[in-house]
Design a protein that fits this description.
Order of helices and strands: HHHHHHHHHHHHHHHHHHHHHH
Radius of gyration: 23 Å
Helix content: over 70%
Number of strands: 0
Shape: globular
Largest sheet: none
Number of helices: 22
Structural class: mainly alpha
Strand content: under 5%
Distance between the termini: 49 Å
Length: 445
């Protein structure tokens, strides 16, 4: 049986199973195992299932075993734990409170502080969903109480939460680096400038929004002295220190990304206990939540590794590369097609699912065109970031909707999101047009 046909049927089966809400880990593993079994069973021309059992089981177990024992994969539980511990130790939220104090008298200042807080939270946690959920509980109710436009109060946090995908450390960058065998440290550094540009773009959206409609963000009349601002800035030093350890240590070649994660976890625990903001019970809860979240990611990653091996067995990737080469598409047209595919998938699937489903096909394709994989990784993560707030299934939007309950209908949140989506698309075009934005920092190491 033709392996390419089996591969195409497998892709259609995956999309169908995901559409009926079958968990992605089970979907990928099941389809890959059955597809491999069919290929091995028909390898001699006749259907010989007994000859397919051993190679199929070997492919399934060896690939999942190799992935779980990957050294780079140990970064995921470390950074996930760092996010939970830093939040419970009141480290991550101090960035928001500091920005809140400094921007008190600025029109739309609380919304801007929410975006800055999301950026600070992202610089430690690496998870967009966690960022939107945590900051949504802190920022959104406060803005609603102050009389902010409901669209602005919810959309600013939903959009700001996406920064967790791009600003290092990022779980998506780790998964991308493992599956493409690229430097995760270089990926982290490559995401800094695009992440900061995205953050500044969101602040610009808020400023223009409030400038055109001052009633959307009432100015909070509270007396704040320079002493208050300095104290708030000094209180945020633990979060800044952790970010400096991660980025500065990696950029300076002092330690690897995995070592940076381990050092930051230890530092966060020590800071939390020293400042008496972290208890043993809170630490235990952080570790428990880390285990649950990490297990979910590991199951998906292991199933994806099996699926990647299956795709390699089918020969679908070389066939697609050959077809695209024969079509003689220009690099710009190819990138446009890739962007459309990711944006369409982002309307219905979660970021990890999109990544593990598409990378087996996309990487051989972009390598054939000579694109830099570090730069392409930033483009992919930015596309996944946009998918988090794209209707009809923007995960971050649903997270915020769950936080505010019936007070703000979800269509109102999406109405506000459209302004942030516009700047996101402009930043994406900028990143795709000028790869130096992504490669400048890692290239100067």
């Amino acid at each position: 049986m033709d392996g390419t046909v089996v591969g195409l049927v497998a892709f259609a089966s995956v999309i169908g199973l995901l559409a009926i809400r079958v968990p992605i880990a089970f979907t990928l593993a099941l389809v890959a195992a059955l597809g491999s079994f069919v290929i091995y069973a028909f390898r001699t021309g006749d259907f010989t299932p007994w000859r397919a059992l051993r190679p199929t089981s070997s492919m399934v177990f060896s690939n999942s075993f190799d992935l779980i024992h990957s050294y780079d994969l140990s970064m995921i539980p470390l950074f996930v734990a760092l996010g939970h511990i830093a939040y419970r130790a009141d480290i991550t939220t101090r960035i928001y409170h500091a920005a809140r104090v400094w921007l008190t008298h600025v029109p739309g200042g609380v919304a801007m502080a929410s975006v800055v807080g999301c950026g600070g939270f992202s610089a430690i946690t690496g998870s967009s969903i966690a960022c939107a959920s945590t900051m949504g509980r802190i920022c959104t109710p406060e803005m609603l109480r102050m009389g902010y436009d409901k669209r602005l109060a919810t959309a600013s946090v939903a959009a700001g939460g996406t920064l967790g995908s791009l600003i290092p450390p990022s779980v998506l960058f780790i998964i991308y680096g493992i599956f493409t065998e690229t430097s995760i440290s270089a990926l982290f550094l490559a995401g800094i400038l695009p992440g900061l540009i995205s953050l500044l773009g969101f602040l610009l959206v808020i400023w223009i929004w409030v400038w055109r409609d001052p009633d959307a963000a009432p100015v909070y009349d509270q007396k704040v002295t320079m002493g208050d601002r300095m104290r708030a800035a000094l209180d945020a030093w633990p979060a800044i220190a952790l970010f400096v350890i991660i980025v500065g240590g990696i950029y300076g070649g002092i330690f690897t990304a995995t070592e940076a994660a381990a050092i930051c976890v230890s530092a966060a625990v020590l800071i939390g206990f020293a400042q008496r903001t972290l208890t043993l019970r809170a630490l235990w809860e952080s570790l428990r939540e880390t285990c649950i979240q990490t297990a979910s990611i590991f199951f998906i990653a292991a199933a994806a590794k099996i699926f990647v091996a299956f795709i390699a067995l089918t020969g679908v990737a070389p066939a697609i590369v050959g077809a695209v080469t024969e079509a003689q598409l220009s690099p710009a047209v190819l990138l446009l097609a890739i962007a459309v595919i990711y944006l369409l998938l982002g309307m219905f699937l979660d970021p990890i699912g999109i990544m593990v489903l598409t990378l087996p096909l996309m990487i051989p394709l972009v390598e054939g065109y000579g694109f830099d994989l570090i730069w392409f990784g930033v483009v992919v993560i930015k596309l996944l970031e946009i998918g988090l707030i794209t209707p009809p299934v923007g995960l971050n939007v649903f997270v915020i909707a769950n936080v505010v309950g019936r007070e703000v209908p979800i269509d109102r949140i999406f109405a506000g999101i459209l302004r942030f989506l516009t700047i996101d698309v402009l930043v994406l075009i900028l990143i795709m047009s000028f790869p130096i934005i992504s490669l400048l920092i890692p290239g100067s190491m």
